[in-house]
Amino acid sequence: ELAAMATFLHNFYNGVENILKRILYAKGVALENSSTWHKDLLRTSHDTGIISNELYHALSNYLSFRHFFVHAYCFTLRWEELRPLTAALTETLKQVKAAVDDFLSR
Questions:
Q1: What are the distances in angstroms from CA 22 to CA 29, 47, 58, 66, 77?
Q2: Strand, coil or helix: what is 45?
Q3: What b/e readout covers 63-95, taking b as 16+ CB neighbours within 10 angstroms?
Q4: Looking at residues 57-79, what average pLDDT do you find?
Q5: Mean pLDDT over the full length of the chain
Q6: Three-state secondary-structure class, residue 26
Q7: How far apart are CA 103 and CA 83, in angstroms?
Q8: pLDDT digits (tens, 9 = 90+) for 7-49
C-alpha cells in the first residue's frame, strides 16, 4: 500500500511537471537541460506567474518527495512521511487546475 501511494504521488507530480513544461514551451520559455531542471522548471513556473508563492511551496514538497522516491527503495517508505502529501493532494490539485486556468485565460 505504501509503494502504491508513493507511486501515485510520484505520478501526480510528474503530471504537474508535464503541464508546466508544455505551458512554458508554448510561451517560448526555454529551460536548460541540466541536472537541476526539475527545480528550474518549478522556479521558472513561479517566476513567469503560472503558479503562486503558496503553490510553489506546496509543489516543492512534492518535488522533494519525487527526488526521494526516484533514489530510494520501497522498504524505506514511511507512512508518516507520505501522510502530509496525501492529505494535501486534493487541495493541491485544485490549486494547480485553478492556476493553469487563470494563466491560460490571460
A1: 10, 16, 20, 19, 31
A2: helix
A3: bebbeebeeeeeeebeeeebeebeeebeebeeb
A4: 96
A5: 96
A6: helix
A7: 30
A8: 999 999 999 999 999 999 999 999 999 999 999 999 999 999 9
Q: Which residue has the cell 505551458?
A: 23
Supply the Cα-derived Rg of the chain in whole angstroms. Answer: 14
Residue 45's pLDDT is 98
Q: Hey, what amino acid is at 46?
A: H
Q: Give the global pTM.
A: 0.94
Whether residue 48 contacts residue 29, with contact meaning beta carbons closer than 8 Å, is answered with yes
DSSP 8-class letter at 78: -
Q: Which residue has the cell 508563492?
A: 53
